[in-house]
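In pairs, describe these two lines:
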Amino acid sequence: MPILLIEDEPRILAFLRRGLEAQGFSVDGAADGADGLRRARARRYDLVVLDLMLPQLDGLSVLRELCSSAPDVPVLILSARSDLQTKLRGFELGARDYVAKPFSLEELIARVRLQLPASAGRGEGRALARAGRLELDLAARVAMLGELVCDLTDREFRLLHLLVVHAGEIVSRERLLADVWGYHFDPGSNVVDVCVRRLRKKLGAESIETVRHVGYRVAA
């Protein structure tokens, strides 16, 4: 199901896009209010995630237009403006939900799912991502290696999905940490290494290659 992100901060936009795509969503991005409104009018989206402090056209104006022209499309506001008056104004104009920055990616994804039909993000049929012999079932959220089938936790799935999408490339620990745990997470943490060790126990020691002092890689 397609989601439109309207966010002017490139780092947050890229972070959100990767996080949502790792969950199986189709994502378009817009860096200003005017472009976001154009995209929303040109294509049918199942959800709009909207920042408020936008160039060219402010978020509340975009919200007003979106809710007027397509009232059945839910809009989730994601903004650093967390005062009660702004939140109430957003709901008054038609927003379905409001998440204040800084935010947890896990919470945002949970709130996104609440705004979509039950089938959202689970894929239709058997959607697979492949790297060599390794397969990820995006609907069932399991990993398959030959005859081996492994259930994965949310973060295991997201980390492995990122490696599979970039199969053959080295993905740095910093990139994995930012995309899977969030851009506010402590960069000195060893959670990436711990998660990789868990995946190797499930899939075999050779499933993920360590590139010393750089990051991790799966074979293409």
User: Anything to note?
Assistant: The chain has a mean pLDDT of 87. The longest strand covers residues 2-6. The first helix runs from residue 10 to 22.
